[in-house]
Design a protein that fits this description.
This protein is of the alpha/beta class. 40% of the residues lie in helices and 22% in strands. The chain has 14 helices and 17 strands. The strands form 4 sheets. The protein has a 9-stranded mixed sheet, sandwiched between helices. The structure holds S-adenosylmethionine and iron/sulfur cluster.
């Protein structure tokens, strides 16, 4: 199966109030050292035969034009020329993507941009701790289209503090009017250690569910394919890179916190920026976690990631053997349904997916 290459850029201008991703604000003075470390890691673990490329973060668009050129050079030296990837995504934030960077990235061969907007409401953006306005996003949108970018994803979040069903609907309306090729809508997760968690913010789960149901109905009506729990695409624009994860494909990750999977073993690099740079500089392995799943644990994980796809999965004989009881339980409680030879999440299961997924992850309950 074709593989994917992920490169993590862990820098952000400011840390958002909900975010627990491995990203750091105020560390721009370390970008050059980080790029040197990335180049060394790439040289030690070249990525041949990758079909998709995803530069994510963090905020990759925070890199200057000369830093982006260094990043492109290391990819082309140790993986492949950017145009050789079937899909090459660059993740960007609205405050740091001027026309020069769009031109540089697009002419290097990046054919997909993913822009984090989160909301079309400036007051909500402020609550989130975002450093951009709606106007910044609209400028970037115009520049991307003017620059000839024909495949754009935009991220939104539902369930924000102070957000109403109406304000969320307005965000969705404004996004639909732009007709992006791909839309990701996430339900807000309150992650431990984030300012939202410290403030004791609790999501109204019923309101969030109503927003996500509304999203699903409106986007399907507008011609989008709801192909993964949080992801919608115009037909043919489903993210190939992310589909590879959900189909248990191989991938290589470069950078701090980046994960790699060779079909058997998953490894994850250390999240700390300074430790990652130090390890690579000292020719030490930056891997902080590694596991090789076999038997029931492997089949369960494969089933769990596969079920994120709305089309569902054809169960393997081993999955039937290991999880028959759990699958029957979820077929009976209506969270899973049968569709020909496949099993998939029901409409109800879409909103209670974690309840289904827990059944397939170790430690397993005794039957
Ligand atoms: C890897 S993040 C970073 C992308 C980019 N730096 C940005 O902020 O736009 C990708 C997306 O995950 C979503 N996300 C991050 N933290 C979240 C949370 N706690 N709850 C829901 N969605 C979240 C946001 O929509 C974000 O755009
Ligand atoms: S949401 Fe994006 S911009 Fe905000 S802190 Fe996380 S990675 Fe950085």
């Amino acid at each position: 199966m074709a593989a994917g290459l992920y490169i993590h850029i862990p820098f952000c201008k400011q840390k958002c109030n909900y975010c627990d991703f491995a990203s750091f604000a105020g560390q721009e003075n370390r970008i050059e050292n980080y790029l040197t470390a990335l180049r060394q890691e790439a040289a030690q673990h070249p990525a041949a035969n990758c079909r998709t490329l995803y530069v994510g973060g963090g905020t990759p668009s925070l890199l200057s034009c000369s830093q982006l050129e260094k990043l492109i050079a290391l990819i082309e030296t140790h993986a492949a020329p950017i145009p050789a990837f079937t899909e090459s995504t660059f993740e960007a934030n609205p405050e740091s993507l001027p026309p020069q960077k769009i031109h540089l990235l697009h002419s290097a061969g990046f054919n997909r941009f993913s822009v984090g907007l989160q909301s079309f409401n400036d007051a909500e953006l402020h609550t989130l701790g975002r450093v951009h306005s709606v106007a910044d996003f609209l400028r970037v949108w115009k520049d991307l289209r003017a620059g000839g970018v024909a495949n754009i994803n935009v991220d939104l979040i539902a369930g924000l503090p102070g957000q109403t069903a109406e304000s969320f609907r307005q965000s969705l309306n404004q996004l639909l009017a732009l007709a992006p090729e791909h839309i990701s809508v996430y339900g807000l997760q309150i992650e431990e250690g984030t300012p939202f968690f410290e403030q004791g913010f609790v999501c109204d789960q019923l309101l969030m569910r109503a927003m996500l149901e509304d999203t699903r109905n409106r986007l399907i009506q507008a011609g989008y394919h709801h192909y993964e729990i949080s992801n919608f695409a115009r037909p043919g624009y489903e993210s190939k890179h992310n589909l590879n994860y959900w189909q248990y494909g191989k991938y290589t990750g470069w950078g701090s916190a980046a994960a790699s999977f060779n079909g058997r073993t998953r490894k994850q690099n250390i999240s700390s920026l300074s430790q990652y740079i130090q390890c690579i500089g000292g020719h030490k392995d930056p891997v902080s976690f590694s596991e090789t799943l076999t038997g029931k644990a492997r089949e369960g994980e494969k089933l769990m990631v596969g079920l994120r796809q709305l089309d569902g999965v054809v169960l393997t004989p081993a999955q039937h053997r290991f999880f028959n009881e759990e699958i029957q339980k979820h077929l009976q409680n209506g969270l899973l349904i049968k569709d020909g030879k496949k099993v998939k999440l029901s409409e109800e299961g879409l909103f209670l997916a974690n309840e289904v997924f827990y059944s397939f992850v170790a430690p397993f309950e005794d039957p």
